[in-house]
C-alpha cells in the first residue's frame, strides 16, 4: 500500500549501515525504558531491532511506540546501524514510528500448555518455531518436486471423494454424497496406478484421511500424502530411488535452512547421516531384533508406533523393513515369488524413535492373482472393477510408495509431535481452529 518503497527485514539485515530505510511488520517484542523504546520488528523475512528515542521523532509517534503492545502492526522509518548486541547485528534508529493497528494484549506469553497453543493456533503460527517449520516444509515439497520432475515423473491429481478402500475398511471416513455415501480417500495409489500406462512415472500430493482412533504423537486424521508410482520398477528399484531422494532432501535442507534448524534446535549432524545406502531389514529379522530389545512379538504381529520406537534404537539413519507377512499388509501387495507367505514391500523407518515415514512396494500385476487377493480380503469385485481392468490391458510390473509429509517434516526437524509439523493439525479431538 502507498508510495513508499519498503525494505524487507531480511534485506535490511544484509544492507550496509548508514542508510535510511522504511520497514513494516509486527512488534515481535517491545519494551521501553526511560526515554527509549526497544522493539523487535518481524515481517516474515527476519527480525530486526528498532530503537525509538524520545526527541528524535514527533512526540505523538514516540508515545505511540511506547504504548504499542506486542503484535501491533507498524511502519518505521529510520537509519540502519551496526550493533553486534542486536539480533542479526543490525539496529534501526527510528525517525518515524507509525502504528497501523494497536494490538490488544496478546494471549500468548510463553507459558502456555500445548493444548492452549492448539486453541490459539491461528496466533501461535506467528511464533518463530512455527514460521521456521513452515519454511522448511514448503522447501521439502519444493525439493520433492525438483527430485521427481528431474527423474522423469509427471505430477497428477486424484480425487478426494472415493468409493473404495485402499488401506482397510476400519479407517474410512464416510461422507454423505447427495443420496449416497462415499469415503474420503486413504491413498491415491490405485488411481496413480491407472496413470502409469500413459505417463510411465507419476506422483501426487494431496491430503489422505484416516479415521484411526490413535492418539500417538504421529497420527493425524488428515495428513499430506506424497505418493509415487512407476511402471517397470521392482521393490528394490523403488527403495534405491527413495534413498537418493531422501538424502537429497536432507542435504538441501541443511544447506538452505541453517537459521530454521537453529530456531528449532535441530542438530544438522543428524541429517548429515542420511546418506545411502540405508540398511534393509527383513520383517523376520526385525521381529527378532525387536524381541532382543525386550518386546514380545510373534510372527504376524504388525509394528505399531511403540514397536517401531524400540526397533529404531541403534539406527543412525533411516532403514527399510521389507518382506512382511502378507496378512499384515493390504490386498494389492505383490507376493514374494520365492516365499508367497510374504509380500515384496518396504516400510521406511526414520531413526530417533520416529518410525514409519514411507510405506510402499511392488503391486500385484497378474489378473488372476489380483482377483484371488480381492476375494481373500473379502472385498467386492464390483468396487474394484476399474482397478482390476488395469491387469487386463497390458499389465506390467510396477511399484510405488506413499510418504507422510507431516511425518517427514517432524523427523527432519526433530519435532516431538506431528501437530507441530503443519499449520492446522486434525486429530481425533482437534478440528478447531
Ligand atoms: O503406509 P500407508 O498406509 O500406505 C499407503 O497408503 C499406500 N497406499 C501408499 C502407497 O504405496 N502409495 O501410508 C503411507 C504413509 C505412511 O508411511 C505414513 O508416513 C503416512 O502415510 N501416514 C500417516 N501420516 C500421518 N497420520 C496418519 N494417520 C498416517 N497414516 C499414514
Ligand atoms: Mg504403512
Largest sheet: 8 strands, mixed
Mean pLDDT over all positions: 97
What radius of gyration results from the CA coordinates?
Answer: 26 Å
Proportion of strand residues: 25-35%
Number of H- or I-type helical stretches = 14
What fraction, in percent, of the residue positions are helical?
Answer: 25-40%
Count of beta strands: 18
Widest sheet, order of strands: 6-10-11-18-17-16-13-12
Low-confidence stretches: none
Distance between the termini: 29 Å
In short:
This protein is an alpha+beta fold and 433 residues long. The chain contains 14 helices and 18 strands.
What key attributes describe this structure?
single chain; 433 residues; 8-stranded mixed sheet; 5-stranded mixed beta barrel; 31% helix; binds 4-amino-1,4-dioxobutan-2-aminium adenosine-5'-monophosphate; binds magnesium ion
Would you write up a description of this structure?
Helix content is 31%, strand content 27%. It contains 14 helices and 18 strands. It has helices at residues 9-14, 59-67, 114-119, 121-124, 128-150, 189-199, 235-256, 258-263, 268-272, 283-292, 305-311, 367-376, 385-389, 405-413; strands at 20-33, 36-42, 47-53, 73-82, 90-101, 154-155, 161-162, 174-177, 180-184, 201-209, 222-231, 280-282, 319-322, 335-336, 339-343, 345-350, 355-362, 398-404. The strands form four sheets. It has an eight-stranded mixed sheet with strand order 6-10-11-18-17-16-13-12, with helices on both faces. The two termini are 29 Å apart. A hairpin with a 7-residue loop joins strand 4 (73-82) and strand 5 (90-101). Helix 5 crosses helix 14. By secondary structure, the chain is α+β, with helices and mostly antiparallel strands. The structure holds 4-amino-1,4-dioxobutan-2-aminium adenosine-5'-monophosphate and magnesium ion.
